[in-house]
Amino acid sequence: MEMWYTEKQTPSVSLSLKTTKTLHVEQTEFQHLAMIETEAFGRMLVLDGMVQTSVVDEFVYHEMIAHPALYTHPNPKNVLVIGGGDGGTIREIIKHPSVEKATLVEIDGRIIELSKQYLPEIAVALTGEPKVEVKVEDGIKHINESKNTYDVILVDSTEPVGPAVGLFSQDFYQGIYDALKEDGLMVAQTESPFFNGDLITSVNKRLRNIFPYVKTYLASIPTYPSGLWSFTMGSKKYKIEDVDINNLYSIETKYFTPELMLASTKLPKFVQDLVKGE
């Protein structure tokens, strides 16, 4: 008998994937967690019924949340990831030679442990990397206790439900601003322009209330709702548009290129309108 996993992405849209095996299921202290094997996208992490990452397309998300920020900042030494317990964003961060410390703060330690077990190619940097520190604690609390500490902060959150709701608030973004050094910058994943337009508008408005420079950019991620995904940067000083891509050092990637980084900020008209709040 065929087995299928279905994520109800909106009340009228679902994603269905043929599965070969259920690897692990549990209710953690914070959310329902499942590891499944799919034919099309390999092993997959699912939280509260929503796809978080898969071994086939994870590189798009993790490269695009990390590298635009780390190339825009000219000398990122101390980098923080809020969420991201699968480890993929940390893996990308430590590719940058200037990074001296990469800190992961994940509220749900079970995501970290099960990602090491079932997604080792994604979680590879969570064990034995001298630059990496892993903390199992509340990201909001950590931000509020880390004034003027980080060069770059990446908010690798789940959708704005359950334990991640506070990671999209005005107070949280103000806390990030305060936790950044005087020339620091942040990037957050900001959902689908097709299905979460109101969130993109609200995040841009909140960040513009705090940061002098705010920029939304896009990437194509097949397993995420609609396949088109957004990220939004808030920066105290540096701008993506000012990066001289001809002088960038080279790192190994599958999706990201310096040229793509610049192109990803050229938004379709309907996304421009969302960013402007029109």
Automatic annotation (TrEMBL):
Keywords: Polyamine biosynthesis, Spermidine biosynthesis, Transferase. Gene3D superfamilies: Spermidine synthase, tetramerisation domain, Vaccinia Virus protein VP39. Spermidine binds at residues 62, 86, 156-159. The active site is at 156 (proton acceptor). Pathway: Amine and polyamine biosynthesis; spermidine biosynthesis; spermidine from putrescine: step 1/1. One of its GO terms (cellular component) is cytosol. Belongs to the spermidine/spermine synthase family. Homodimer or homotetramer. This is Polyamine aminopropyltransferase. The gene is speE.
